[in-house]
Task: inverse folding
């Protein structure tokens, strides 16, 4: 996983370029050595773009709540997923920034959804075709005045067959009403197999964030998860949604400047 120091990324354009190239290539990257203060995640986002504000605010808290409206606000483990599949358009990137992590457990996990999709295709091309041809449904109505719904394939492809996006989130799945009856059993078989691949430890990279550390994922490609954690100690992360076009624009601009100066 590409990794760089917070201050170095802000001070050294060459280090930033190398880190952005890694983020663009792998869909995930890590930052260490950041300030342990609320809102510091915005200084990570500012390295390459802007933050999309949602009903959760400009950023959101990830810690245990007494009456949570989202499973993320409990100490339970979370299956690997992409965030907010019920939005249209979906947030294309996510930053999770650690402020406290003294609880036992709570390791972060990332999974390359494209690698899972390719493996699914290699095993059974029909499964891949079903998940890319028919729309799944996702919804969220956990907050007053908020009702979000989206219909999109779990595996999104261009007309010429290039895989461009993965949407996978069992907690946000709604009734699948777009699947023909004669395809239903096969569709759920494919859905189940994709879930098995996502849960396969061989497809996962696990790590425990320390205060001042953060990681960034391409939310159209890389799924993230967490292991459950105990009530002893504290786990406090903050998250936000920058967009991928900002990252790609920054990277393309820096590469253009590099070519012009060489």
Result:
């Amino acid at each position: 996983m590409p990794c760089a120091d917070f201050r170095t990324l802000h001070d050294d354009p060459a280090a930033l370029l190398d880190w952005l190239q890694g983020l663009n290539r792998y869909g995930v990257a890590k930052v260490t050595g950041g300030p342990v203060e609320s809102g510091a995640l915005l200084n990570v986002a500012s390295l390459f773009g802007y933050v999309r504000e949602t009903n959760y605010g400009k950023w959101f808290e990830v810690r245990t709540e007494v009456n949570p409206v989202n499973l993320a606000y409990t100490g339970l483990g979370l299956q690997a997923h992409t965030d907010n599949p019920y939005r249209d358009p979906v947030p294309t990137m996510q930053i999770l920034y650690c402020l406290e992590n003294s609880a036992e457990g709570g390791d972060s996990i990332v999974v390359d959804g494209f690698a899972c999709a390719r493996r699914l295709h290699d095993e059974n091309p029909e499964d891949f075709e079903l998940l890319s041809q028919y729309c799944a449904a996702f919804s969220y109505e956990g907050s007053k005045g908020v009702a979000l719904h989206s219909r999109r394939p779990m595996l999104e492809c261009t007309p010429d067959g290039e895989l461009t996006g993965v949407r996978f989130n069992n907690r946000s799945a709604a009734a699948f009403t777009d699947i023909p009856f004669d395809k239903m059993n096969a569709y759920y078989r494919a859905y189940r197999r994709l879930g098995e691949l996502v849960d396969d430890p061989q497809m996962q990279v696990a790590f425990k964030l320390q205060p001042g550390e953060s990681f960034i994922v391409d939310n159209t490609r890389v799924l993230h998860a967490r292991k459950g954690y105990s009530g002893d100690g504290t786990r406090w992360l903050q998250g936000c949604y920058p967009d991928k076009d900002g990252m790609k624009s920054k990277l393309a601009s820096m590469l253009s400047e590099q070519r012009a100066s060489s």
Notes: The longest helix spans residues 244-261. Residues 85 and 108 are 20 Å apart (CA to CA). DSSP finds seven helices and 15 strands in the chain.
